[in-house]
Amino acid sequence: MTKKISLFLLFILLVSNLISCQKEITRVSKPIDKNAVVDSTITAFQKTLLEQQIDSVFKKYKFNGSIAVFKDSLQLYRKENGFSDFKTKTKIDSTTIFAIGSVSKQFTAALVLLQMEQGKLNVADKASKYLKEFQIKEYENIMIHQLLNHTSGLNTFGGKLMFKSGSDFFYSNDGFNALGKIVETVSGKSYDDNVQELFKKAGMKNSSTGNIFEGHNFASAYLGNANNFQVVPNMPKRLGSKDIGTPAGGILSTIDDLHLWNNALYGGKILKPETLKQLTSKSAERHHAILGKMGYGYGIMMNTGKPECYFHSGYVKGSPSLNIYYPQSKTSVIILSNIADEEKGKSSTFRPHVEVKKITDNLENTILQLKSKH
């Protein structure tokens, strides 16, 4: 990786020198746009490097799924491999719909904040103001803000708090399912209806929830590997069950729809600037078992160092996913799959995702360094 980047830096230097020489040679011809030449050279380098590096991840892990990288509207990399249905040998393609697990949480967070923009709630409100289930001594002081950033102390609903609300971090699916109920209460509409409106606002035409999905391109989820697999039953309907819950992990989507979502959300088409800042501001810290130390906003994780990066992983049985966005370059990296060998553990399942994020983190840092010099 370092050698490739060093060679590229040399290449950029040569291009810059060539441009300078060209300007000295002639003053008659139209001036060369140095920035445009450098940008196109960087883009070519990105495409080449991503192809080499991510293709190697596909090969190394025999990755069954889809990975794409977009810089704003420009596709830098895309590859689909394997099957959406192992029994019928149906191949994964650009229209394949995956369960995205906890990537769903950013949609729920956005819905809560949209209700706040309409004056129907405030994130500083106590959840007990909207839900009878929270009107008990154990839960009465939990704020919506604390549910959004997993600092409520809630684990499984009905159980004792893990700690005093606001004093620590504990990841809670039940907390996000409670947020979904709050959205339903203040809007007077079902979560499914609310999120469908959000999809429409972002231009997402192929996304749904497990509850209402009626399409034919869903990637069945499997446990095991390509040679020894077991289908996860009752998918995608099981995503709406109490064990998972639609607001916490029940959304279905595609590579292209998540790309549209990233551009719409971070491009200011969903939330007002000050509201988006609330969603993306670090208000808690998470120590992820696989991805390490990170900041946490509202349904969004973030790098603690460089590059600036918003992301969230997702996992429901057989469906590991990762959605990444680099705001400085407006770059989306989306990784979706539909098989996981749980016997080897989640760390093994997410190795391809972690490797791709390392590749794109390093690339982002390099590109930003180059941009700062030109």
Automatic annotation (TrEMBL):
Tell me which domain of life the UniProt entry assigns to the organism this sequence originates from.
Answer: Bacteria
Gene3D superfamilies referenced in this protein's UniProt entry, alphabetically: DD-peptidase/beta-lactamase superfamily (3.40.710.10)
Name of the molecule in the record: CubicO group peptidase, beta-lactamase class C family
Residue stretches making up the Beta-lactamase-related domain: 65-344
PANTHER family membership? BETA-LACTAMASE-RELATED DOMAIN-CONTAINING PROTEIN (PTHR46825:SF9), D-ALANYL-D-ALANINE-CARBOXYPEPTIDASE/ENDOPEPTIDASE AMPH (PTHR46825)
Annotated Pfam families: Beta-lactamase
Family matches, as InterPro entries: AmpC-like, Beta-lactam-related, Beta-lactam/transpept-like
